[in-house]
Amino acid sequence: MNRKIIARDTKIEIRLSKRDYELISEHTFVDSEFIECIREVPGKKYFIAPYTLDDLDDVLGFIAAEANHCKNKSLKEELDDLYDRLSEIEDAYELIEA
């Protein structure tokens, strides 16, 4: 797999569905800074989250923590699916070592 090489502070625009946004904002204890930067795309049915790889790693940690403690099976499955999809995005990039 060819990974894209980026600088540590490079923001990646991650596309989230409305449900993805709800899962992150309503079902995790993610820091508000990671929610406040997410914006809805006018005229579209998705959101954009401009995250660095470090930001994305933090968000993935919050999603994993909630999924691991979730008693609702269908919610756990949704969180696990979101985690897997975002992990694939994270794995598509490699940081430039300075």
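(ticket continues) Second input and output from the same batch:
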Amino acid sequence: MYSVMREPRSARAATPPVKELPARPLAQATPLPPVLPKPLAIQPEPAAVTPAPPTAPTPAPPQPEPAALVPEATPPEPAPESPPAATVARKINLNKATQAELELLPRVGPATAKAILAYRALNGPFRSVRDLDKVKGIGPKTMERLVPLVTVE
């Protein structure tokens, strides 16, 4: 254990004495103005409200002519789940496809395309489309979308 050696009190620098301010006599003190509450504003009581006399019903505004009517807008078509970057015109052969061709498939980006190519390089050609399930990064939903778009020859 280490100990810290201090200088004796006598060797330390003495602090200078605190100067005291001269006392002011109370007669010279400036008195504060008294704080008075703000007066409350008195509002007059509301007068009794008398109902307005009944009036004759107003005529309905004129109806527009049928030619002036705006045709009803057709509801917009529902948007597709995910817009594909490019459409696949033919089935893609998993055993011959390049990375760019694989990236045309839905839910297949650069990382998944590289994983498919790496699996093909390590294990040889795909024997069936269902072998895609063995590729890391391809789950059941992706398989559902890929099966109709790919082939093995």
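Agent notes: The domain at 96-151 is CATH 1.10.150.320 (DNA polymerase; domain 1). Helices lie at 99-102, 110-123, 140-146. Closing as not reproducible unless the customer responds.
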